[in-house]
Amino acid sequence: MNAPMFYELKRPKSIIPNRKYPALFLIHGRGSNERNMFDVVGGLEDNFFIFSIRGHIPQSPGYSFFTFKVFGQPDREGFDEGVSLITSFIDYASEQYPIDENGLYFLGFSQGAVMSMTLALTLGHKIKGIVALSGYIPQFVLEEYDRKPVDGLSVFISHGEKDPVLPYRWGVAAQEYFNGMNAAVSFYSYQEGHTVSFKNQEDFKLWLLKDLKG
Prior knowledge:
With 214 residues, this protein is an alpha/beta fold. It has a single domain, classed as Rossmann fold (3-Layer(aba) Sandwich). The chain has helices spanning 76-96, 111-123, 139-144, 168-180, 198-213, and strands spanning 7-10, 21-27, 49-53, 57-59, 62-64, 68-70, 73-74, 99-109, 129-133, 154-160, 184-190. Strands 1-3-2-8-9-10-11 form a seven-stranded mixed sheet, sandwiched between helices. Strand 10 (154-160), helix 4 (168-180) and strand 11 (184-190) form a beta-alpha-beta unit. The longest helix is centred in the middle third of the chain and has 21 residues, at 76-96. The N and C termini lie far apart (34 Å). 38% of the residues are buried. One of its GO terms (molecular function) is hydrolase activity. Residues 24-198 form the Phospholipase/carboxylesterase/thioesterase domain. Keywords: Hydrolase. InterPro entries: AB_hydrolase_fold, LYPA1-2/EST-like, PLipase/COase/thioEstase. This is Esterase.
């Protein structure tokens, strides 16, 4: 079976035969690539199979998972295709690698966070949790997508209070929505802009490891 998307993989150094491992799927931001995301998850390699996925749309200087018609409104065709491709990639990875299907996580920054939150709503209990860094939920996802129950889903949402790209209030609205859907939400805010600070990295890594044990 051919992979539906280009990706890079980091796996635990010591693989125990017949054992399955949790998986962390990284989704980068606009104009970035699959290599850039590994820097923010350093130290998690021995706990997860870490797949970093490349966006399917070329966008200088890298790639994207969707483009925009107007600010805050992703182009629907490219967005829908991105959701479908990532969903297919999850199936591919689960077939090709010793992955625990009860331990699947998404981690995304910016439009990667947008995709992570959307996939949480479309896949529901098929995944265990998401880490959404500086993103939002598009309105058409809330109004038109076939959304699954997310009660009990582990959700980490963070946003910079000084974000000049995606307003802080959008991150607040996302955590309020997931709270309203009875997900297990942890919300973190930082005195930062549109970035992933070292403190933010520390916080979500601790959260991930704690959620694995819980």
